[in-house]
Amino acid sequence: MFCLASLSLTACNLIKPLGTSSSPIILPEVVIEPEVKVYRPSETKVHNLLHTKLELVPVWEKQELKGIATLTLKPYFYPSNKLILDAKGMIINSVVLDKDSSKISLKFDYDMLYLSIELDKTYSRFEEYSIAIDYVSQPTQLDRDGSAAITDARGLYFINPDSTETNKPTQLWTQGQPESNSCWFPTIDSPNERMTQEVFIRLKEEYKSLSNGTLVYSNYHDDGTRTDYWKMDQAHPPYLTMIAAGDFAKAIQSYTKKSGEEIPIEYLVEKEYANHAFSIFGNTPEMIGFYAELLDYEYPWDKYSQIIVRDYVSGAMENTTAVVFGEFVQQTTRELLDSDYEEVIAHELFHHWFGDLVTCESWGHLPLNESFATYGEYLWEQHKYGQDAADYHQWESTDGYLYEAQFKQVPLIRYDYQIPDDMFDAHSYNKGGHVLHMLRSFIGDDAFFQALHLYLESNAFEHAEVDQLRLSFEKVSGLDLKWFFDQWFFEVGHPDVSITYFQSDDEIQIQITQNQTFEDRPAFQLPIQIDLHFADAFTSYEVVLKESEQVFSFPLSRKLEWVNIDSKKVLLWEKEDIKPEEWWIKQMKFGGPLLNRIEALEHIMEEPTSITTEWIELAANDPFGYVNFLGLMLIEEAHDSIDCKSSLLSIIENTKSTKAESYAINLLAEIGTQNEIEQVIEDRLLNEQSYYVLSSCLKALSMHNPERALELIQEYANHSNIDMNSAISEILLVNDSEEGIRYIKEKINSANSYEGYEYTSIYANWMFDQSLITQINHLNDFEEVARDGKVWWTRYLGYAVLSEIRNQLRDSSETSDQEKALEVTEMLETLKKQETEEELLNLLQE
């Protein structure tokens, strides 16, 4: 699964960091709980679920699913005369044993969570039996909250089932992870279970269906319906079972294995995006081939499908052979110029080895699934787009973990989670991906990938614990790696170090101090590469940090130019590197890998008085777009004292990042001359394809020629692109507030889950530039956002706006304002009582 919470928020226009709201978020105190308060074991295997056959008929008008689930099982080891299945919120009509061509009704008890069935006799582990359960799934009757990663847990979802919502397709889809598939079919809902399956689903003829495995046939009926038969011959966990149906367009490619076998690859998108399917997913065959070659393990399944659905409750899901994506992935070819979600596509595909082929034994071992899928993103970036692109992606991912680590520090492998959803966090994803990167660096590429092959080969179509991964690495490398796995998988936190230097003519001493708390764990053991740079060469040393404070001494036979600690930027740590300013500029100029340049720029941004023309020119002329973006931040800081115009124009003309170009145009609108601005804008208004850049041009134009901007935006008024619509909203609100308010409210009301925050932010920013009276007049709009926002972070923004208005009213000396403040307080309390999202409630308490 790809969780939206794991996305780098700064890199996505559709989801904004919460800190950008008008009220700051106060992070709770860091929680480090070394003592296990509860223990979540692996699911006890009483029965083996061998096969599941589902005969399904969706009842669209009721948002129900009629089904017959025929399960084939046998006791795992001990004899048993009782079967307990997970079955949440269903109507159970009957349970029948199919035995010797006869049907035997079985007694059962059902408490809306578990279906307890009395078998006709005691079965041994050598005896199979089959039962058929006639049931109705009622997902809308379930009251099951999700989490930040998986925002709902009802398992089965009907989207616009009565076709009453305009501009929205009718769809059906499922989301099973972690334990929600038992909301739509009875099963043993545990990751350490595996089964083969068959799915028969009856639909209107015009709808397409998707499930795991191969579509064997379709039977057409006289009533205008069709039954599709999907068959999955390879065993996989029940949580990876899926169905989807609706009015989709399909595009088809294929991948040829080394054996010559050709497997179909298909992409299901909304019909308006049919011509863009290959732009979105077209690299998939190359991805499959790359991963198969890298792991020396062929793609293990019989087909690969990818489908995009509306109102999805997470980012994406690696259902075996049938991956589901949220609608944020669905973009036009033109929109893909600005941002794509290829890392999500890579993430879900890599799961088909790590997660689907070999599955974590319990949710406490989730990093065996998600850390690998996250690192799969890095591997694809490195292969397809180069080392800088891969390192930038890793840097963003690690930043997501470091943000979470401010208020949450837990081991990667943990048995004390409250609910399985707790495991789906930036530890299991982001931190785990970085830990694998460190392991790769430590043992070398050959050993790393041979160990992965051994792990897959040894555990294929089975479940695994992290010790099995460790043993694979040890068997290949010959190294004892228990210290590494204990430190990074079973302990909390990461090193927080400070580095100081003491130099004489013939020696340099480097002191590294670990500053993190030592109450609950010893100092980290860190293999570190230290590069000493001289005028025409450098010398690398490999050292191991083991103590809370250690000094490393190196001889000097000639003049030392600068020092680079962890020169490949492999380590997961936070560090204060206290070195001379001239060393930082040399790191920027000669440090090579991207993360050395980013680190140097981040340092100089903390010392704005040290910004020079050289710093700005180096950043402006860097080949990587994000470095250009950091250069723009230097220009923004220093343009009053340094002539930065040529560097700014250079970024606009030469950067490969449309994000950097867009930001540069915004900056030019503030500090450029009328002539410079017009030259840049007019050329792009005629020829620009990037929506990022075009929207910035329109906003820049509105600052200097609002009449022309208002005239131009009429051409884009009905556009679907969020960047263009955001620009139009801002321009209208400033220059024609009545029309702007109408426009922005329309966009908020029609926004999908990922766009509502953006539009609400624009509305709020405009409103807070207005008088208090005007703000009061718009209270009801933000009350509606706080109550009905489609995702919790949008609702949070509604709360933040209401709270800010209330605070202003409290500060007023007018009696009427004080009375209004009380009304808003009551409004907020009422809204809080109605809120059910735990993460939002925790933030509101802060």
Description:
This protein is an alpha+beta fold. Among the domains are: 1-30 and 275-300 and 325-494, Neutral Protease, domain 2; 46-243, Sandwich (Immunoglobulin-like). Strands 5-4-8-2-1-11-14-13 form an eight-stranded mixed β-sheet, with no helix packed on it. The protein has a five-stranded mixed β-sheet with strand order 16-17-18-20-19. Strands 9-10-15-12 form a four-stranded antiparallel β-sheet, with no helix packed on it. Helix 6 crosses helix 7 (445-459), helix 10 runs antiparallel to helix 11 (594-605) and helix 12 runs antiparallel to helix 13 (625-638). The protein is globular.
Descriptive key words:
about 850 residues, alpha+beta, Neutral Protease, domain 2, Immunoglobulin-like, 8-stranded mixed sheet, 5-stranded mixed sheet, 26 helices, 29 strands, about 40% helix, globular
